[in-house]
Design goal:
Radius of gyration: 15 Å
Distance between the termini: 60 Å
Number of helices: 4
Number of strands: 0
Length: 88
């Protein structure tokens, strides 16, 4: 019984965390992603795929939450902030 519970908890985490990331990304403005030099549609699609394919789910979600989300969230809070891109 405990093995089944552990398996269900693992499946919930492997699908739930990327799904939460996809919902989070979908709620943010397209402009914030553009300013952070990212594509909103790409990240939503990647995170949904991660929720479906559990083997890569936590890796894709970790990349989004650690690398992409902080940059996008900074522009979400302050859209007048200078871009992170050093190009003119």
């Amino acid at each position: 019984m405990s093995e089944l519970l552990i398996l269900l908890l693992g499946a919930f985490l492997c699908a739930g965390i990327p799904l939460f990331g996809a919902i989070d990304a979908a709620r943010m403005k397209e402009q914030s992603f553009t300013l952070a030099d990212q594509k909103k549609s790409t990240w939503v699609a990647v995170l949904i795929a991660c929720a479906i394919f559990w083997g890569i789910g936590l890796i894709g979600a970790a990349v989004y939450f650690i690398s992409v989300r902080p940059k996008v969230a900074a522009f979400e809070r302050d859209p007048n902030r200078p871009t992170l891109d050093p190009r003119p």
